Amino acid sequence: MESELKDMNSNPPSSKEERPLLKSESDLAAAIEELDKKFAPYARTDLYGTMGLGPFPMTEKIKLAVAMVTLVPLRFLLSMSLLLLYYLICRLFTLFSAPYRGAEEEEEEGGVVVQEDYAHMRGWKRTVIVSCGRFLSRVLLFVFGFYWIHETRLDRDSLMDPNPKTTSAEISQKGDAATEEPERPGAIVSNHVSYLDILYHMSASCPSFVAKRSVGKLPLVGLISKCLGCVYVQREAKSPDFKGVSGTVNERVREAHRNKSAPTIMLFPEGTTTNGDYLLTFKTGAFLAGTPVLPVILKYPYERFSVAWDTISGARHILFLLCQFVNHLEVIRLPVYYPSQEEKDDPKLYASNVRRLMATEGNLILSDLGLGDKRIYHATLNGNLSQTRDFHQKEE
């Protein structure tokens, strides 16, 4: 499948005349539908359609028009005010503090930059930064329309109930874990649906995240990310040796596991976002250390607009998000997962078992697609939609 689509996107035509046009707009619709089936984890199924481009019913157009002159300006001002407030808090309480420095070498081709953060501060300053971060993140979610967040906390007893969705191996593993001494998880692992996931996890525990190198240089957000203790990486790294990133994450996971005062790290092992119905193959970064992990499942029920950040552009997504009167979020917090010795020795097995457990408890569909497939889907989809615009221009 991937090779077929790569062939479609290799050697792109330089002009409209060279581009192989489909015969009709109905053919384009069929092609897009076929793409959505092949790349189902990234396909939008809400009222707003592929890439959030509609077509929109008249009632939805009226709702959007009303929201754009009422909700959008108010929510934008409030959200920017909250962001600025938290930045000022972070600036104030780090004013006379030197940042903690982790990895010292910077690789030009990608991997690790010099890691600086304020998450290793001790005492009341750190407490204030974390408490304010959790509170303001929840307020920001409220501003975005998440007035209620339904949380379900599952214990091991509920997971051990024999049912068709639970395998005997999982029951055995959970039973062995229940007899062990409680240990602090080295990382929180979660499915990834939207940038809003970060706001929820900040409101819940204010952990560290893995972020692009450029995030640390952004106005306002840069300092906040350093106060969270983010690990900065170069996502577009061309170097085949990516051990620097894995080593840094592995070190942070081990540190969080053995030191209660160290910042907890939050990882999205899928490596990209989906439409919320699927769970992609997990990367092993969170599982290399062999420490326990805390799985969390996020689900965003919707009637009109899905907050999943899949094929829709960032600006369009934020605009439509602010236009929704109410948004919904459901959270399933699983018990800490304690790996067996076999899982500690095999991070891929460990990641796979946690993934299957999360898919079972979250009623998610397993998929073997990844970030590369998502990029192919986007590129092919953009090509088809440009042909749609050509058809409309010819009709006009």
Task: Describe the protein's topology.
Blueprint: H1 2-9, H2 25-38, H3 58-69, H4 71-93, E1 100-101, E2 111-112, E3 116-117, H5 124-143, E4 149-153, H6 156-159, H7 168-178, E5 187-190, H8 196-204, E6 208-212, H9 221-228, E7 231-234, H10 243-258, E8 265-267, E9 278-279, E10 293-299, H11 314-323, E11 329-333, H12 341-345, H13 347-362, E12 365-366, H14 371-395
Parallel strand pairs: 4-11, 5-8, 5-10, 6-7, 6-8, 9-12
Antiparallel strand pairs: 1-3, 2-7, 10-11
Transmembrane segments: 64-89, 128-149
Family: Belongs to the 1-acyl-sn-glycerol-3-phosphate acyltransferase family.
Keywords: Acyltransferase, Lipid biosynthesis, Lipid metabolism, Membrane, Phospholipid biosynthesis, Phospholipid metabolism, Transferase, Transmembrane, Transmembrane helix
Q: Number of helix segments?
A: 14
Low-confidence stretches: 1-23, 104-112, 160-172, 238-243, 387-396
Helix/strand order, N-terminal first: HHHHEEEHEHHEHEHEHEEEHEHHEH
Report the end-to-end length measured between terminal Cα atoms.
36 Å
Give a short account of the largest sheet.
8 strands, mixed
Number of strands: 12
Task: Kindly name the structural category.
Answer: alpha/beta
Backbone shape: globular
Rg measurement, Å: 23 Å
Strand order of the largest sheet: 2-7-6-8-5-10-11-4
**Average pLDDT over all residues:** 81
Q: What percentage of residues falls in helices of 4 or more residues?
A: 40-55%
- The share of residues in extended strands comes to 5-15%
Keywords: Acyltransferase, Lipid biosynthesis, Lipid metabolism, Membrane, Phospholipid biosynthesis, Phospholipid metabolism, Transferase, Transmembrane, Transmembrane helix
Domain Phospholipid/glycerol acyltransferase: 186-301
Transmembrane segments: 64-89, 128-149
GO molecular function: 1-acylglycerophosphocholine O-acyltransferase activity; lysophosphatidylethanolamine acyltransferase activity
